[in-house]
Amino acid sequence: MSRLSQIAPEQANPQQAELFTAVKSKLGRVPNLLRALANSTAALRGYLEFSGALSNGSGLDPKQREIVALTVAQANGCEYCLAAHSTIGKMVGLSPEAIEAARRADGFDESSRAVARFAGEVVKSRGRVEDEQLDAFRAAGFNDDAVTEVVAHVALNVFTNYFNNLAETDVDFPDAAPLATEESEAAACSTACGCTA
Protein backbone atom coordinates (compact mmCIF):
# COMPACT_ATOMS: atom_id res chain seq x y z
CA MET A 1 0.00 0.00 0.00
CA SER A 2 1.32 3.40 -0.98
CA ARG A 3 2.87 5.51 1.77
CA LEU A 4 1.67 8.70 0.04
CA SER A 5 -1.82 9.61 -1.10
CA GLN A 6 -2.65 8.69 -4.67
CA ILE A 7 -5.02 11.47 -5.68
CA ALA A 8 -8.15 10.11 -7.35
CA PRO A 9 -9.12 12.11 -10.45
CA GLU A 10 -12.59 12.78 -9.02
CA GLN A 11 -10.99 14.29 -5.88
CA ALA A 12 -8.46 16.45 -7.76
CA ASN A 13 -8.31 20.20 -7.25
CA PRO A 14 -8.52 22.37 -10.40
CA GLN A 15 -4.73 22.35 -11.01
CA GLN A 16 -4.46 18.60 -10.52
CA ALA A 17 -7.56 18.02 -12.67
CA GLU A 18 -6.04 20.04 -15.53
CA LEU A 19 -2.88 17.92 -15.47
CA PHE A 20 -4.83 14.67 -15.11
CA THR A 21 -6.95 15.58 -18.14
CA ALA A 22 -3.80 16.08 -20.22
CA VAL A 23 -2.39 12.74 -19.04
CA LYS A 24 -5.64 10.88 -19.67
CA SER A 25 -5.86 12.28 -23.21
CA LYS A 26 -2.45 10.75 -23.99
CA LEU A 27 -2.51 7.54 -21.95
CA GLY A 28 -6.21 6.81 -21.57
CA ARG A 29 -5.82 6.74 -17.79
CA VAL A 30 -3.87 8.36 -14.96
CA PRO A 31 -1.22 5.92 -13.65
CA ASN A 32 -0.66 5.69 -9.90
CA LEU A 33 2.78 7.31 -10.20
CA LEU A 34 1.17 10.49 -11.51
CA ARG A 35 -1.63 10.31 -8.96
CA ALA A 36 1.00 10.18 -6.20
CA LEU A 37 3.12 12.93 -7.79
CA ALA A 38 -0.01 15.11 -7.79
CA ASN A 39 0.53 15.66 -4.05
CA SER A 40 2.76 18.43 -5.40
CA THR A 41 1.24 20.06 -8.46
CA ALA A 42 4.64 21.65 -9.13
CA ALA A 43 6.37 18.23 -9.11
CA LEU A 44 3.74 16.69 -11.38
CA ARG A 45 3.81 19.62 -13.81
CA GLY A 46 7.62 19.62 -13.86
CA TYR A 47 7.74 15.88 -14.50
CA LEU A 48 5.20 16.09 -17.34
CA GLU A 49 6.95 19.04 -18.98
CA PHE A 50 10.41 17.47 -18.73
CA SER A 51 9.29 14.04 -19.94
CA GLY A 52 7.23 15.63 -22.73
CA ALA A 53 10.18 17.68 -23.94
CA LEU A 54 12.46 14.62 -23.89
CA SER A 55 9.97 12.50 -25.81
CA ASN A 56 10.29 15.02 -28.66
CA GLY A 57 14.09 14.95 -28.64
CA SER A 58 16.12 13.75 -31.59
CA GLY A 59 19.07 12.21 -29.73
CA LEU A 60 17.33 8.95 -28.79
CA ASP A 61 14.49 7.03 -30.39
CA PRO A 62 11.59 5.57 -28.32
CA LYS A 63 13.25 2.15 -27.93
CA GLN A 64 16.49 3.76 -26.75
CA ARG A 65 14.59 5.92 -24.24
CA GLU A 66 12.99 2.79 -22.79
CA ILE A 67 16.37 1.05 -22.66
CA VAL A 68 17.69 3.92 -20.52
CA ALA A 69 14.59 3.75 -18.28
CA LEU A 70 14.95 -0.01 -17.78
CA THR A 71 18.69 0.19 -17.08
CA VAL A 72 18.16 2.93 -14.48
CA ALA A 73 15.13 1.27 -12.86
CA GLN A 74 17.06 -1.98 -12.42
CA ALA A 75 20.05 -0.14 -10.95
CA ASN A 76 17.77 1.62 -8.45
CA GLY A 77 15.56 -1.38 -7.68
CA CYS A 78 12.33 0.42 -8.61
CA GLU A 79 9.63 -2.22 -9.00
CA TYR A 80 7.06 0.33 -10.22
CA CYS A 81 9.32 1.66 -12.98
CA LEU A 82 10.46 -1.82 -13.99
CA ALA A 83 6.80 -2.81 -14.44
CA ALA A 84 5.86 0.41 -16.24
CA HIS A 85 8.85 0.46 -18.59
CA SER A 86 8.68 -3.26 -19.34
CA THR A 87 5.10 -2.61 -20.49
CA ILE A 88 5.98 0.55 -22.41
CA GLY A 89 9.08 -1.13 -23.84
CA LYS A 90 6.87 -3.85 -25.36
CA MET A 91 4.56 -1.14 -26.73
CA VAL A 92 7.45 0.55 -28.59
CA GLY A 93 8.72 -2.75 -29.98
CA LEU A 94 11.28 -4.12 -27.52
CA SER A 95 11.27 -7.89 -27.30
CA PRO A 96 11.29 -9.63 -23.90
CA GLU A 97 14.97 -10.46 -24.54
CA ALA A 98 15.76 -6.80 -25.28
CA ILE A 99 13.98 -5.73 -22.09
CA GLU A 100 15.96 -8.22 -20.03
CA ALA A 101 19.20 -7.13 -21.71
CA ALA A 102 18.47 -3.47 -20.91
CA ARG A 103 17.85 -4.37 -17.28
CA ARG A 104 21.32 -5.93 -17.26
CA ALA A 105 22.80 -2.72 -18.80
CA ASP A 106 23.33 -4.63 -22.03
CA GLY A 107 21.68 -4.80 -25.43
CA PHE A 108 20.59 -6.93 -28.34
CA ASP A 109 22.74 -5.10 -30.91
CA GLU A 110 25.65 -2.65 -30.91
CA SER A 111 23.46 0.44 -30.67
CA SER A 112 21.21 -0.76 -27.83
CA ARG A 113 24.22 -2.17 -25.98
CA ALA A 114 25.97 1.21 -26.22
CA VAL A 115 22.91 3.07 -24.88
CA ALA A 116 22.39 0.68 -21.97
CA ARG A 117 26.05 0.56 -21.01
CA PHE A 118 26.44 4.33 -21.20
CA ALA A 119 23.29 4.90 -19.12
CA GLY A 120 24.52 2.34 -16.61
CA GLU A 121 27.88 4.12 -16.36
CA VAL A 122 26.16 7.49 -15.86
CA VAL A 123 24.20 6.02 -12.93
CA LYS A 124 27.12 4.10 -11.44
CA SER A 125 29.57 7.00 -11.69
CA ARG A 126 26.99 9.67 -10.79
CA GLY A 127 27.83 11.38 -14.06
CA ARG A 128 31.61 11.11 -13.74
CA VAL A 129 31.91 8.90 -16.83
CA GLU A 130 35.49 8.16 -17.91
CA ASP A 131 36.73 9.44 -21.28
CA GLU A 132 37.07 5.87 -22.51
CA GLN A 133 33.37 5.16 -21.87
CA LEU A 134 32.27 8.42 -23.47
CA ASP A 135 34.47 7.66 -26.49
CA ALA A 136 32.95 4.16 -26.77
CA PHE A 137 29.44 5.65 -26.82
CA ARG A 138 30.44 8.09 -29.54
CA ALA A 139 32.18 5.32 -31.49
CA ALA A 140 28.84 3.48 -31.57
CA GLY A 141 27.45 6.37 -33.63
CA PHE A 142 26.10 8.73 -30.98
CA ASN A 143 26.71 12.49 -30.90
CA ASP A 144 26.56 15.08 -28.13
CA ASP A 145 22.78 15.39 -28.57
CA ALA A 146 22.45 11.73 -27.60
CA VAL A 147 24.96 12.09 -24.74
CA THR A 148 22.92 14.96 -23.31
CA GLU A 149 19.63 13.13 -23.71
CA VAL A 150 20.94 9.99 -22.01
CA VAL A 151 21.94 12.09 -19.00
CA ALA A 152 18.56 13.86 -19.05
CA HIS A 153 16.69 10.54 -19.20
CA VAL A 154 18.83 9.12 -16.41
CA ALA A 155 17.97 12.15 -14.26
CA LEU A 156 14.25 11.90 -15.04
CA ASN A 157 14.23 8.19 -14.24
CA VAL A 158 16.26 8.58 -11.04
CA PHE A 159 13.58 11.05 -9.93
CA THR A 160 10.72 8.61 -10.57
CA ASN A 161 12.69 5.66 -9.16
CA TYR A 162 13.48 7.45 -5.91
CA PHE A 163 9.96 8.83 -5.64
CA ASN A 164 8.34 5.42 -6.18
CA ASN A 165 10.78 3.72 -3.82
CA LEU A 166 9.95 6.24 -1.11
CA ALA A 167 6.20 6.34 -1.79
CA GLU A 168 5.89 2.59 -2.36
CA THR A 169 3.49 3.51 -5.16
CA ASP A 170 0.91 0.81 -5.87
CA VAL A 171 2.02 -0.90 -9.09
CA ASP A 172 -0.72 -0.62 -11.70
CA PHE A 173 1.17 -2.27 -14.58
CA PRO A 174 1.86 -5.99 -15.03
CA ASP A 175 4.76 -6.98 -12.77
CA ALA A 176 8.17 -7.17 -14.42
CA ALA A 177 9.50 -10.70 -14.58
CA PRO A 178 12.37 -11.26 -12.16
CA LEU A 179 15.79 -11.51 -13.75
CA ALA A 180 17.31 -14.96 -13.73
CA THR A 181 20.37 -15.07 -11.51
CA GLU A 182 23.62 -16.58 -12.66
CA GLU A 183 23.15 -19.38 -10.15
CA SER A 184 19.68 -20.30 -11.40
CA GLU A 185 20.89 -19.99 -15.01
CA ALA A 186 23.73 -22.42 -14.27
CA ALA A 187 21.29 -24.84 -12.61
CA ALA A 188 18.95 -24.62 -15.59
CA CYS A 189 21.87 -25.27 -17.96
CA SER A 190 23.00 -28.26 -15.89
CA THR A 191 19.49 -29.72 -15.90
CA ALA A 192 19.00 -29.12 -19.62
CA CYS A 193 22.32 -30.32 -20.96
CA GLY A 194 23.91 -32.34 -18.17
CA CYS A 195 26.97 -30.07 -17.97
CA THR A 196 28.57 -28.83 -14.77
CA ALA A 197 28.43 -25.11 -15.59
Automatic annotation (TrEMBL):
InterPro entries reported in the protein's UniProt record: AhpD-like, AhpD_core, CMD-like, Uncharacterised_peroxidase-rel
Keyword Oxidoreductase tagged: yes
Domain Carboxymuconolactone decarboxylase-like: start-end pairs: 43-111
E.C. code: 1.11.1.15
Originating species: Bythopirellula polymerisocia
Recorded GO MF terms: peroxiredoxin activity
Name the UniProt record assigns to this protein: Alkyl hydroperoxide reductase AhpD
Keywords tagged on the record: Oxidoreductase, Peroxidase
Annotated gene: ahpD
Enzyme class: oxidoreductase
